Amino acid sequence: MTPMTVTNHNFNAEVAECSQLVLVDFWASWCGPCKMIAPIVDELCQTRSDIKVCKINVDEQFELAVRYQVSSIPTLMFFRGGKVVRRVVGLRSKAEIEQIIEECHNEHPAE
Hints:
By secondary structure, the protein is of the alpha/beta class. It has one domain: 3-Layer(aba) Sandwich (Glutaredoxin). It has four helices and five strands; from the N terminus they run E-H-E-H-E-H-E-E-H. The protein is globular. The mean pLDDT is about 95.
């Protein structure tokens, strides 16, 4: 399974209306750190059934990047119930991202 590609057209259905925790990777093809974090994001998509993993290309989906004030990439945002519960900018290790996922689950327990 690979991360869901999100666009302005499917954002509401895939992210805003999703009841589970959603990790959204804001990235661009020319971004070196984005290329470095991509395998981690892909692996999380394959190994974590407790989250939904999506990717937004900021060059192609400029409106979403502006809407969520993405000024540096990679930016990882964690959404629950359509709201941003955590934002992380820059390259992070898999362990750091998994820790953030756990914190998000603990701060916002599933109903």
